[in-house]
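Re: duplicated header lines in exported C-alpha cells

Our pipeline writes sequence and C-alpha cells for each protein into one text file. With two proteins the header for the second block appears twice in some exports. Here is an export where it did not happen, for reference. First protein block:
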Amino acid sequence: MPPLRGVIFFAHGSRDPLWSAPIEAAAQALKAQHPQALCTCAYLELTEPDLPAACQILVTQACTQITVVPMFLGTGRHARNDLPKLVAQLAHTYPQVQFHIATPVGEDPRVTALLASIAAEHLA
C-alpha cells in the first residue's frame, strides 16, 4: 500500500484571532483542489493547534509521510532553527512517519512573482 501523505501549513501565530485566516484559507484551497488531501494548520505560538497537536491529527488519519510547509516569506530563525528542532522531536515521537520540511513559501519564485505583480498594480 502506498504511503499516506499529509501536509501541515506551519505559521508563526498571533494573539489576533483573524490573523490565521489566510493560513486556514490555504488549507481549505488545497482541500478544494484535492478533496482527498489530508492537511491541517499549525502555529509556533499564540495560536492553536501547535505543531505536535497538528501532527497528531494527521497521524490519527494514518499519515506515514508528513510535509511541513513553512508559511514564512523567508528562512529566518523560526524556519532555520525552531522548526527543524520541533520536527526532530516529532520524528522521535513518531518513528513510523517520514517528515519533510518544505522551503518557506516566500522563497518560491512563483510567490515572489505574484507579490511583484500585486505591487505592480499600484504603479498604474
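Second protein block, exported in the same file:
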Amino acid sequence: MSLHEAVAGCSDAADMSRPLGPEQPSVVRYACGGAQVVGARGSFDLSSISPLAEALNRAAAENSKVVLDASGITFADSSLLNLLILTHRTVDLRVAAPTRQLCRLLEITGVDALLTVRSTVEEAAAC
C-alpha cells in the first residue's frame, strides 16, 4: 500500500475526481539546501489531501530529507496530521513556516513534538 492509499483511502484516479471547493489545493516540488521541498497551498482535508500525499511520497522516494512548506495551508484536519505522521515514518520530514491554524493543530495533538518545525524553508532544509 502506498502512502497515498493509506492517507487518502483510494488507489485509483477515479477516487480522486471529486470537485474541490473555493480553496482548491495546489502543490509544487523543488530542491533547496539538499532537501526536497513540497510547497502546499489551500485547504487540505480527506477530499483534497491526495495531491499532497502524492507529492510527499515522490519527494520521499527521491531524497531522505523532505521539507513541507506549510506557509500557504489555509485549513488542515486530521487527514493532514495522518499524512505528516506517515511521511515522518518513512523520511526525515520537516515542516516549515506553518500557519497559525496549523501550528495550533500540531500543538493540540502533540504532533509538534514528533516533527521538526522551523520558521523558514531554508532553516528547515539546513537543520
